[in-house]
Write a structure and sequence with these properties.
five-stranded antiparallel beta sheet, 5 strands, 162 residues, alpha+beta, 3 helices
Length: 162
């Protein structure tokens, strides 16, 4: 058995990813310690520089309107769902934007999925370029406005003598 210590720790932020698998698993109930069913979700990051990095998240089996699993499915589908039956085929391979946070535990710091969101329409690089362009345009406009500000018009009156 080989152990791979080269795993990349994702910094907090938003990363483009696609859903690879959803598997039923078992975990200990936080309150009772009894085993309970849950779902393990595996996402593959497709963001430039992080390709192939996998991240797992866990949800309960609940699928009510306020459940984490429901929020994640709606993020993958980029829409609210109601009165529908969905299968793995409807979700696997779908791209999304994962919000990642760090969680401190007694075993160390871990990257956790805080939310699964619809894909941004533009890449982060394109959003930054547009932000910079708008900021420069506003800065240029403000400079132009300041330069074109007219001085008060005193007409033909000579300057007062002191």
């Amino acid at each position: 058995m080989m152990f791979d210590a080269t795993e990349v720790m994702l910094e907090p932020g938003v990363y483009r990813a696609k859903l690879k698998t959803i598997e039923e698993a078992e975990r200990s109930n936080y309150d009772t310690g009894e085993p309970e069913a849950c779902r393990d979700w595996t996402f593959e990051v497709v963001e430039e520089g992080f390709e192939g990095t996998s991240l797992k998240g866990r949800t309960s089996m609940a699928f009510g309107p306020r459940s984490k699993a429901r929020e994640w499915v709606e993020g993958l589908l980029a829409r609210k769902i109601a009165g529908e039956k969905l299968g793995l085929d409807d979700l696997l391979g779908k791209e999304c934007d994962l919000s990642i946070v760090h969680r401190e535990t007694d075993r160390g710091t871990f990257a956790n999925i805080s939310s699964v969101n619809p894909v941004r329409q533009k890449s982060r690089k394109a959003e930054r370029a547009e932000f910079d362009r708008v900021a420069k345009s506003r800065e240029a406009q403000a400079l132009n406005d300041a330069e074109s500000e007219e001085l008060p018009d005193f007409g033909d009156d000579p300057a007062p003598a002191f």
